[in-house]
């Protein structure tokens, strides 16, 4: 099976479904990584930071053993200013190239504007009549983005699919450590302690040690 993991920013995929990525790989699936944005000097990032970020992406891709990695290269934090049709077309071209059966994507109601724009483009790029090969679409939660969304009913992340990652959590945290510039200290949300706590909480919902949760958008069987 071909599985596509889409992250707007590198680390979204690890925060939201790192254990599940490892689980799919262990199951023998072909796994792919699509990153939508990149950092640039024009946005205030140093050459050293950009080089470090590229190295992080390479190391993370190697750790997960992705079959292929794609980066659309849009400016981070600027998706609200682009022509969304351009994003839809580029995302669609990658999806048509891979023809994944399962897709994991960011949550459409995350507080980050980049995530909101990307989610709309992804859904437009996955219409069933153009992509009959897509059998399942799942949204993952991204700690520090999903739980900070406006507390309104329409923004609720409804956990209705769970993945037991008990045997993969330590490896997930190890990979998250590769994004050392994104790691925070407790009680800040992106601490390793909080990532573990969320996995423990989601695991308790299904009576396992650790889990990741998803919101099912489409399931065809």
- CATH-derived topology: Rossmann fold
In round numbers, the mean pLDDT is 97
| Termini gap | 14 Å
CATH architecture: 3-Layer(aba) Sandwich
CATH class: Alpha Beta
Order of strands, widest sheet = 3-2-1-4-5-7-6
Radius of gyration, rounded? 16 Å
Q: What proportion of the residues is helical, as a percent range?
A: 25-40%
- Note the beta-strand portion: 15-25%
So, the CATH homologous superfamily? LmbE-like
Would you report the number of β strands?
7
Helix/strand structural class = alpha/beta
Q: Please count the helical segments.
A: 6
Secondary-structure element string? EHEHEHEHEEHHE
Shape, please?
globular
What can be said about the biggest beta sheet? 7 strands, mixed
Domain count: the total is 1
Which residues form runs of ≥5 with pLDDT under 50?
Answer: none
Keywords, separated by commas or semicolons:
single chain; 221 residues; alpha/beta; Rossmann fold; 6 helices; 37% helix
Word description of this protein:
This protein has helices spanning 12-26, 47-64, 84-98, 113-124, 169-176, 192-205, and strands spanning 2-7, 30-38, 68-75, 102-106, 136-140, 161-164, 211-219. The protein is α/β, with parallel strands linked by helices and 221 residues long. It has a single domain, classed as 3-Layer(aba) Sandwich (Rossmann fold), CATH 3.40.50. The chain has a seven-stranded mixed sheet, with helices on both faces. α1 packs across α5 (169-176) and α3 crosses α4. It is globular.
